[in-house]
Write a structure and sequence with these properties.
Length: 56
């Protein structure tokens, strides 16, 4: 299935070997897909946000 990352817009072909297959299987359209790169980035930024106080 071809999906498009909602963050960077990159298109990916998610197959059964893809780590995100569970998120798209059985769906006809995936609107909230986030690619592996952006998942790692978001996760990293979330960790950083927990370490540092939020800038006001
Ligand atoms: Zn992305």
């Amino acid at each position: 299935m071809e999906v498009r990352c909602m963050l960077c817009g990159k298109k990916e072909d998610v197959t059964q070997e893809h780590p995100k297959w569970d998120e798209v299987r059985g769906k006809t359209k995936v609107v909230t897909y986030i690619c592996l790169n952006c998942t790692a980035k978001v996760r990293y930024e979330a960790n950083e946000g927990q370490k540092l106080p939020k800038p006001m």
